[in-house]
Amino acid sequence: MGRPKRFKNARELEEAWEAYKADCDNRMVLTHDFSAKNSKFVSAELKKSVTYTIEGFCVFAGLSRSQFYETYAGNPRYADTVTRMREECEVDARNKFELGVIPTQLAGLWMSNYGYCKGQPAEAPVQQQEDDPLTKSLKEELKHGLFK
Questions:
Q1: Which residues pair with 35 in a beta bridge?
Q2: Alpha-carbon gap, residue 78 to 117, rounded angstroms
Q3: Distance (Å, rounded) from C-alpha 57 to C-alpha 64?
């Protein structure tokens, strides 16, 4: 006999997901900065947000990632909720990039999780420029063997 389910139905999973999102959106972070006006360091507690992830939710809910995927992601009763959770993670990451909450240098790393960056972008094909008249004539002379 396996472990009992942490969430007995999809509603409980949804409620835990909403609590996790509220926690992510309202993290209190202690920050330090130098005040040139007062010539001293100043500390302040600020409300910041972090990106939603399934892994973060698992830690928040006290589940292992494998347990989450085995118990809930593969269960048709929870499928809609798990799909919505994944979609909300993706939309949250995109919104935070567009709003500048997450540095754009991390875009490739984050968005590759959602299938946007499948590798290095393809290089643009090099367009061949037409040769100027002097280059054309020199190439012709080389072709006919006049510069041997």
A1: 40
A2: 28
A3: 10
CA separation for the pair 77, 97 (Å, rounded): 33
Low-confidence winner among 36-40, 46-50, 126-130, 139-143 (lowest mean pLDDT): 126-130
**pLDDT for res 122:** 45
The per-residue pLDDT for 146 is: 61
Residue type, 1: M
For residues 35 and 42, is the Cβ–Cβ distance under 8 A? yes
Q: What is the DSSP letter of 104?
A: G
Beta bridge partners of 40: 35
Alpha helices in the chain (DSSP H): 10-25, 54-61, 65-68, 79-98, 107-112, 133-143
Are the beta carbons of 99 and 48 closer than 8 angstroms? no
Residues listed for the chain:
148
Question: 91: which residues sit within 8 A by CB, 6+ positions away?
Answer: none
d(CA 121, CA 24) in angstroms, rounded, equals: 32
Q: Which of 10-14, 70-74, 98-102 has the highest mean pLDDT?
A: 10-14
